[in-house]
Amino acid sequence: MDLGSTQYGEKQVILDPTMAVRILAKKAMEDPLAFWSEQAKGLEWSKQWDRVLDWDPPFAKWFCGGLLNASVNCLDRHVSSETKNKVALIWEGENGDSRTISYLQLYRQVNRFANALKRLGVKKGDRVTIYMPMVPELHVAMLSCARIGAIHSVVFSGFSSSALADRINDANSRVIVTADGGYRKGKIVELKGLTDEAVRSTPSVEHVVVLRRAGNNIKMGPKDIWWHEATENVQNGCEPVPVESTHPLFILYTSGTTGKPKGVVHGTGGYLTFLHSTAKWVFGFKRDDIFFCTADVGWVTGHSYVVYAPLIHGVTEIIYEGAPDYPKPDRYWAIVQKHGATILYTTPTALRMYMKWGDSIPNSFDLSSLRLLGTVGEPINPEVWKWYFTTIGKGNCPVVDTWWQTETGGIMLSACAGLGGCIPMKPGSATFPVPGIDVAVVDEDGKEVTAGTKGLLVVRKPWPGMLLTLWNDDDKYSKTYWTKFEGQYYPGDYALIDSEGYIWLLGRADDVLKVAGHRLGTMELESAFVSYPAIAEAAVTGKPDPTKGESIIAFLVLKSGFAQSDQLNQELVDHIKRSVGPIATPQEIYFVNRLPKTRSGKIMRRLLRSIASGQPIGDISTLEDGAAVDEVKQAYDELKKTIGRDQTT
Ligand code: ATP
Ligand code: MG
């Protein structure tokens, strides 16, 4: 593929106004309600809505009066079509187990498990907490809840028992669905043991359903029932419950990069409409696609683009249970090759990890089945984008850099490969809003800034995928997202829109550095470090400075084959001065083996900020699962050991 005259954003481009994406975006701006109403027709409804939107800021009710069921949209519509016997899920266990499940088989399993939940007393509106490894039964559990109108709350299986207990208590769940264990990095994660600990402090829990996955030895107590026993002697068919469009489909706690997790609530009709449309536009699903989204279902990407969107579209998808580097640092490439994946949707953090190990590993696999590459979760450094495009996509696959959040439900900013909107691309830019999404970059007073000026991203119109509220906390919902700028949604990200309208995410607003009166997004500096050949990963933070306000501290991970030296330090300082400017000169550079991250792979800069400025690191228990907390502590100790040395200026 030719990146054309826009290669790496150096030259002028003129966008083709006839591109399908532009036409659709224009239509959406002219009459948003008619536009979204048209989009909602892509779903199956038991009863058509009366009003497209009731907007009582900041509360939006989409498709009022409409009734539908999420599991019908994911399954029933396919089992009455030629998709019936198509493979829905290709599952790869980390330990080498593998299964394929057709739409009909998935439909049958969901019907039976929905009946099992009913037998345990679960009713419409009840909360069910799901704490499972990445296995097909996770899909089954979620869709079974949806079938009977219960609200699922999936807790990432890497979280600790106390994080699980907090989430169960917040949602007041009656039932937990878990497994004996799941595989991660060659070890069994003892999910049942962790659940037992959590259940000691969660009085709302009446039943715990346990899937046998790992075959490890576990104790069953009076509240516990095996999955296979719960689904014995139930009827095959379970009538789906049509729910109001605004009925909560799920609660999902955000990954906690910036603070205490929030229970984001998504509805049914608006959320599914948005997923259906965004998946069609961004990925342009085709009948023979094999979609590989590497996200864990415990995160929003997993909910939206591993469970609901691909199934609504009837595509075949790959789900993988374990770590990207187990048993060898090639697992994603091995899976792409084995199943002939056509679309890969992954994270910058995974790509940086693979990039660090060199090209020869991916080059030893046949990746020619790929037609499209996607990323999500953090800004992608241009250097990493280029590597993805060239080494993985062999220059043949567009890269869709998708910006969105747990709260937005689905993709908000991205090139739209399904609408011919991928060319020209600019590595490191999430390009444009998807049709129907109206964003701007504003200053602290909420005034729109001019092209090329850095500021805060806002969304100016409600959209169907937006969260309904925060669970049991309308007030916090209002304050967190809608109070900073009256009537506009505030995502908390720092960004700029360039003179051609491309949007660049520069990092989180909370992490912005203020150096001698200049504001610098972490991304600007981190990408400059990563563009240096020796550097695999970078995290930048600030430290109070009496003259400059803040000085820049960088934590760097070297690529394989490179070593730390005074000369390298100096080269990096020169490189940053040259590429960003003297204002960006780092005060201190630390080389570390790894950066502290959330288990969803995001760098925890607030932790680094505390470390660099000698503040207590604060509460990390809500942020992390057990294993990652240890990693964070280890990284912290390593950093403490190095602090005080390696000063650059
Ligand atoms: P918390 O809100 O609890 O601190 P979190 O923000 O990490 O956690 P998510 O909803 O998973 O939880 O992540 C959304 C955030 O991830 C965005 O606000 C943005 O900062 C970042 N992000 C996601 N995708 C992209 C992208 N393509 N480019 C830049 N940033 C991205
Ligand atoms: Mg967030």
Structure description:
The chain contains 19 helices and 30 strands. The chain has 649 residues and is α/β, with parallel strands linked by helices. It has four domains: 1-30 and 324-436, Rossmann fold (3-Layer(aba) Sandwich); 31-267, Rossmann fold; 438-509, Luciferase, domain 3; 516-643, GMP Synthetase, Chain A, domain 3 (2-Layer Sandwich). Helix 1 packs across helix 2 (32-40) and helix 3 packs parallel to helix 10. It is globular and about 70 Å long. The protein starts with 19 loop residues before the first helix and ends in a 7-residue tail after the last helix. Bound molecules: adenosine-5'-triphosphate and magnesium ion. Adenosine-5'-triphosphate binds next to strand 25.
How many domains make up the coordinates? 4
Ligands (ions, cofactors included): adenosine-5'-triphosphate, magnesium ion
**CATH superfamily (homologous) name of the largest domain:** ANL, N-terminal domain
| Mean pLDDT across all amino acids | 92
Which short descriptors sum up this protein?
649 residues; alpha/beta; Rossmann fold; Luciferase, domain 3; 4 domains; 8-stranded mixed β-sheet; 7-stranded mixed β-sheet; 19 helices; 31% helix; disordered N terminus; disordered C terminus; binds adenosine-5'-triphosphate; binds magnesium ion
